Amino acid sequence: MNNSMNSVENTSSPKNGVSNHHPWPFVWLTGLILAWAVDFLFWNQRVGLSFPIWVALAIAGLLFTAFREKQRLPLASYGLALLSLALSITPFLRSEPFSAVFCSLGALTLLGLLAATLVHGHWVHYRIGDFLLAGLRLLAATLVRAGQELVRKPDLASRPKKGTFWEEFRQRGLPILRGLILAIPILAVLGTLLAAADPVFARLLKNLLSAFNIERLPEYLFRLTYILIFTYGFTGVLLSAIHPEPPEERPNPHQPWMMRFLGATETWIILGSVVLLFGVFVVLQIRYLFGGQANINETGFTYSEYARRGFFELVWVAVLSLGLYTGLSTVTVRKSRSQELAFTILTVVLLSLVLVILASALQRLVLYENAYGFTRLRTYTHLFIPWLGLLLVATLVLQATGQRGRLGLAILIFLTGFSLTFTIVNVDALIARLNLQRARAGQELDAAHLLTLSNDALPVLVTAYQDPSLPAADRDRIGAVLTCRKLQPAYSADWRSTRLSEMRASRLLSSLDLTPYQVKNLDSSPFVVLGAEEFHCFQEILDE
């Protein structure tokens, strides 16, 4: 008796398992709303305010669907939702391209992880392979889950009672909807043939269709098609999120996620040779780069020439070394305690040397920025290096404490933190501020490069232009930059494409008096006259 009661309870309970309950009408409606929102918010629009609105709608759809199905969500799922929403705000805050694109991808990645782990929150225990499998499961749900629910025979006990809205819609509405979908293309073909056969009917058909703006019919059909495709995909994701099939067990981070096949000897040779190579390089760095300008001059290079070489390559060395460690720790067979200890010692030495190499890269980058100024690419690298250093330190700690299965979580935290940096830090404003500091210290101001920055930098430039302590020549260059920026046509966007930086820039530019700067055109190329100098408003700058 008890066994049968437990069986019934397990069958009807939706928690973390396969349920016979079919919430498909509500879930399909939610999927349709999300798909329609994609069309409404993004069709013929730039990404701006629309993006955080859609992400908020997607999160609300996931949470509301789970609540409707009486699912109790873990705190880890709410944390992912908040992080995804925080990253999604960046395209509204910033006009600088990399920040907007990178944070948008980060927000969508976290949103996908939220959908894949909504009801159990196991992502905090995932290994690297588990993250990859979660992505594949989500992709499979997008492709097939909604179709499975359409053909699955519902449990009689969970079928809506007669007289309810969904039962009436299933019995009467669905046949009508299917009939309309099938009839439209048939009517289109036959109507076209009849219109070609009779001019009177063609005029009648034209007058009838003019009310529907028939010239845009191909566009409407295309938009309807992708809305239906998105509806199918979003519905599959929602169904998989609230009723994962099969139910996922919490992974054990201490268990390898794939079979180990590489022998310990091969691994010792690989790690030992790389450690030897890095050791030689680090000795040279300590002798020359960290030893001062006099030691560098002994090699025949100037300080700036030495700084200009290799900081991007050194960052790649650090990234590839982390990948090497991850791969070897995954596939190396370690049968005894001594083999495990040897692997730990070698990897700790390797990662410690990589940290010194990374410090060398940062040192070179600082020297280069001091000598040549700040650009976007250099600033991205400058922000990336400290986060990569933190990830390497975390990897060292995890390896030394026997918790290397948590490396996947550490990488996720690193990527999320690096993405949030671009939400917090205004990159173009930072570049403008640092280059202006160099100008105040007596360095040459590269006004042409300031012109290539986005509207994110406008508040800094306007403040500098209004600063009487700035050298007059630099102030005039900034005035020319602002004059050129004022010539650029404003983007005629509605509220969906609104960006906060553009609103602020428009207000600041309209309040400035830039009449002292004369604008001329040479072959349709405007330039500002600065004494004997011509400051052209269209500049192509190499960012390196």
What overall form do the CA principal axes indicate?
flat
- How is the quaternary structure best described? single chain
Order of helices and strands, N to C?
A: HHHHHHHHHHHHHHHHHHHHHHEEE
Number of helices: 22
- Level of helix content? 55-70%
What's the end-to-end separation, in Å? 75 Å
The major pleated sheet works out as: 3 strands, antiparallel
- Quote the average pLDDT: 82
Which structural category fits the helices and strands? mainly alpha
Identify the strand order in the major beta sheet: 1-2-3
Uncertain runs are 1-21
How many DSSP-defined strands? 3
- What is the radius of gyration computed over CA atoms, rounded to a whole number of angstroms? 31 Å
The portion of residues forming beta strands comes to under 5%
Summarize it:
The protein is 68% helix and 3% strand.
3D structure, described in words:
This protein has 544 residues and is an all-alpha fold. 68% of the residues lie in helices and 3% in strands. The protein contains 22 helices and 3 strands. The protein has helices spanning 2-12, 24-42, 50-68, 75-88, 90-93, 97-116, 128-151, 165-197, 199-210, 217-242, 264-287, 293-297, 303-308, 311-331, 337-372, 376-400, 407-424, 427-440, 447-451, 458-465, 472-487, 500-510; strands at residues 518-522, 525-530, 533-536. Strands 1-2-3 form a 3-stranded antiparallel β-sheet, with helices on one face. Helix 6 crosses helix 7, helix 6 crosses helix 17 (407-424) and helix 14 packs parallel to helix 16 (376-400).
